């Protein structure tokens, strides 16, 4: 697997970048929403870059997927989703959409990452 070629990691990285920029741009975001969006968005950016530079590293794939899931659930954990009034903020929607996109595309990359890892091991054993 070649470095800097996996579209899944670029999508997860873009989701993280969008989340970070959204948190900084929308002044109506609560402090907890901003913090969670910056943390999980930033972690998606970091794991995206690491996954692009070190393809075939399964633990990085799992970490990236976990950060996407955590971003997705952060509106409920940070209490910035308001289901009682259905008045979901832009921070809520950003967290949900970016989180699910990052988690789904990363989950789609699990098999290729595992195959690359096992292929590399088998190649060294021959």
Automatic annotation (TrEMBL):
The keyword Transferase appears for this protein: no
UniProt cross-references to Pfam families, sorted A to Z: SPW
Transmembrane segments: 7-26, 32-52, 59-81, 93-114
Source species, domain of life: Bacteria
Keywords: Membrane, Transmembrane, Transmembrane helix
Limits of the SPW repeat-containing integral membrane domain: 7-106
Protein name according to UniProt: SPW repeat-containing integral membrane domain-containing protein
Species lineage: Bacteria, Bacillati, Actinomycetota, Actinomycetes, Propionibacteriales
